[in-house]
Amino acid sequence: MGLKKQIESGQAVLGIELGSTRIKAVLIDANRKPIASGGYDWENSLIDGVWTYDLEEVWTGVQGSYAKLKQDVMAKYGVTLKTVKGLGFSGMMHGYIVFDKEDKQLTPFRTWRNNFTSEASAALTGRFNYNIPQRWSIAHLYQAILNNESHVSEIAYMTTLAGYIHWKLTGEKVMGVGEASGMFPIDLKSKEFDADLINSFDTLIEEKGFKWKLKEILPQVLVAGEKAGTLTKEGALLLDSSGELTPGIPLCPPEGDAGTGMVATNSVAVRTGNVSAGTSVFAMLVLEKALSKVHPEIDLVTTPDGNLVGMAHSNNCTSDYDAWISLFGEAAKALGAEVSVPVLYDTLLGLSLKADPDCGGLLAYGYISGEHMTGFSEGRPLFARSNDSNFTLPNFIRTHLFTSLCALKTGLNILIDEEKVVVDEIRGHGGFFKTAEVGQKIMAAATNTPVSILETAGEGGAWGIALLASYMAQEEEQTLPEFLNDVFKESMGVAVKPDPADVKGFNSFFDRYHKGLPLERAAVENLD
């Protein structure tokens, strides 16, 4: 069946992901290949010390990305998109969105980027003997309790961004297990929230006298392949304000960007791993067994089908070097040169491969926000050099690429060196890999592991959630790894092996990075 007929007959599948800087919609065909897309650019705001997005803009962005997708479908195939075989939503993991019994939002959305829940994080980690990172929903909830915030007593539902969108489109308060594992610990046998730890939390806060119990305000947990409701009439209008989208479309469980990253890189089986690198960067290694002890630097989450994953997460990655490249673009324009953004990136990032392996003694910190991996609740972007540093443009660019991965490397060292986690290959996706050769070589140097990317790596998590929706909609009985192996059998690129000189250079820079952290601390303390 041709693509036009597939779209007209409702055989295509749609995925939409709300990322940190872009909301993206991807339509895939019966072969699970992307055939159309649409996007909406947005940015978080720092309001009253809280990184947030307004939920009104969430809907503006979701509708905008879908409208652009419809336009793309019409331009390519001459068809008005009216229905699909399956639909899925994903978003930035973690964070805190709470509502009262009247469905009124009680506090602005607190995103994963906030680092003000350290007291709650430490207390819950100790109580549960299970690492509870600052980003997790339960850490935000307990911190609000410790802060005696008045809204807590009114909570009727707590969710994440993906869960919120799904709820409003279907009426179902559910969550994919991968996304749920970033809210509260998961029992790997039942694939549900850990009942013993829920009871422990209820006991911890019993003296507060809240009307709710934790289980009552959490979503129901589902695994990949399960149906998670259907698009309601009201939901169809929320997504497509023209009224052309048909209600009744089945939805897969909503997932987080970590889970969709694993799917989009075929990294859900044991001994596989992936790195998602963009505004933030995180590595996901699927574990053969539980870790030997609790590590505050390592999140324990799950794949969308419920396998244990060790996750090393850094809040900062490309934002600072994006700012520098934009500045170079302004300089070029001031000198009368019109350079497109792709050419600007490819040219400047390409210079990094001509630099000194260790960046010539330069140093930078791309801390737009705090960085829990190195103990910072706030950040200040910083560049430094000594008098005898080799201050060249290639070294400058390489410095900003290297520093964007140093916090991540701090966590990976724990998994690989201390816990002896074995990973055969890391599969990359996200904006860091748009200049493919550069992204792969720099990541291979940082991880000392072969790094591959996919032809579809640029589609990222939106394609990943579309694949999960396709997996849910298919009739064939397959495990998720079996399904993905069919999808990826011809599209995985050749892995770039780490160059020993690059690895040695990165390790030298990594040592300089950690020795220089007092510089970053001074910047935070002295620069408003």
Verbal overview:
It is a single chain. With about 525 residues, the chain is of the alpha/beta class. It is built from 18 helices and 21 strands. Among the domains are: about 130 residues, Nucleotidyltransferase, domain 5 (2-Layer Sandwich), CATH 3.30.420; about 110 residues, no CATH class. Helix 13 crosses helix 14 and helix 13 packs across helix 17. The longest helix is centred in the last third of the chain and has 26 residues. This is ATPase. GO terms for molecular function: kinase activity. InterPro entries: ATPase_NBD (IPR043129), FGGY_C (IPR018485), FGGY_Carb_Kinase (IPR050406), FGGY_N (IPR018484). Belongs to the FGGY kinase family.
Layout of secondary structure:
Elements: H1 3-8, E1 13-18, E2 22-28, E3 34-41, E4 45-47, E5 50-52, H2 55-77, E6 86-91, E7 97-99, H3 118-128, H4 137-146, E8 157-159, H5 161-170, E9 174-176, H6 177-180, E10 186-187, E11 192-193, H7 195-204, H8 214-217, E12 220-222, H9 233-239, E13 255-256, H10 257-264, E14 272-277, E15 281-286, E16 298-302, E17 308-314, H11 319-334, H12 341-351, E18 363-365, E19 382-384, H13 393-418, E20 425-429, H14 436-447, E21 451-453, H15 460-473, H16 480-487, H17 500-515, H18 517-526
Parallel strand pairs: 1-6, 6-13, 9-12, 14-20, 20-21
Antiparallel strand pairs: 1-2, 2-3, 4-5, 7-8, 10-11, 14-15, 15-17, 16-17, 18-19
Helix pairs in contact: 3-4, 10-15, 11-12, 12-13, 13-14, 13-17, 14-17
Domain Carbohydrate kinase FGGY C-terminal: 274-472
Pfam families: FGGY_C (PF02782), FGGY_N (PF00370)
Organism: Oceanispirochaeta crateris
